[in-house]
Amino acid sequence: MIGEQRLRRIAVAAFAAAVIWLPLSCQRKASGNARVWRMGEQVKVGPLIYSVLEAEWHADLRAGDKQVVPQNRFLMVRLSVTNSGGQPVSVPGVSLEGAGGEAYYEQTEVEGVPDRLPPLRHLAPAETIVGRVLFDAPQNAYRLRVREEGEPDQPEDKLAAALIDIPLNLPSPLSIPVKQ
Length: 180
Known about the structure:
Radius of gyration: 21 Å
Low-confidence stretches: 15-31
Structural class: alpha+beta
Order of helices and strands: HEEEEEEEEEEEEEE
Largest sheet: 5 strands, mixed
Number of helices: 1
Oligomer: single chain
Number of domains: 2
Number of strands: 14
């Protein structure tokens, strides 16, 4: 009797552990080593604190008389990055991830984006930068992948990272004037 009750308790505990562990392990695999955050939240990744302040879709950009047309649509994301550590750090590039796993990277060659973050970003301790990054992607909901700085030979999946939801329902102006 006692052996049978003990065996049942162990079986129930093992089942409960599997029920709890299985969804967590699937969630971890779906987003790698990254937790998902909402726009506006402060997201700490290593010594860096990221916050997406706003995002806008654009059919084109204008710099004076020049019109720049994307292959898909331009998504302009305004974000802040703070170095909360005690050492200077480089801020890695960010990328967009679609629901199907597709990735879109910063468009650094498009000129005239207002308040653009420079492609090479370095922060002193307690320093904050605020600016925009630009993507060329089909208009859809995405997640912005932010990560910590790593060594050149370090695999990206070993770095701390986070995902920030960029919902589809954003303002979509036809075009905006930009600095020359």
